[in-house]
Design a protein that fits this description.
single chain, 87 residues, OB fold (Dihydrolipoamide Acetyltransferase, E2P)
Length: 87
């Protein structure tokens, strides 16, 4: 029996990171490394290729399943400033 894919709308905070590269080492897919210690492949990632290593807050539809990578289709996002901890 197939395990269902669960979809829900959530807001995540994290950093855009490379996920896949072409034969010339150009980033072709990106993911969101979120503060919940999970990685979410960005399904509509083309618009985020220029934001690699940038922190964002993203709201979108999260898909997950037992044998399915976590993924997000981002509906809205905002850039976050770098946060520095005081000593």
């Amino acid at each position: 029996m197939k395990k269902p894919i669960i979809a829900s709308t959530r807001t995540l905070v994290g950093v855009i990171t490379p996920f896949a590269w072409d034969e010339n080492d150009r980033v072709t897919e990106v993911s969101l490394s979120a503060t919940d210690d999970e990685e979410y492949i960005i399904e509509n990632g083309q618009r985020f290729l220029e934001l690699v290593q940038k922190p964002i807050r993203a709201t979108g539809i999260i898909k997950s399943g037992k044998k399915f990578h976590r993924a997000i289709n981002i509906k809205k996002f905002e850039m976050l400033e770098h946060t520095y901890m005081a000593k």
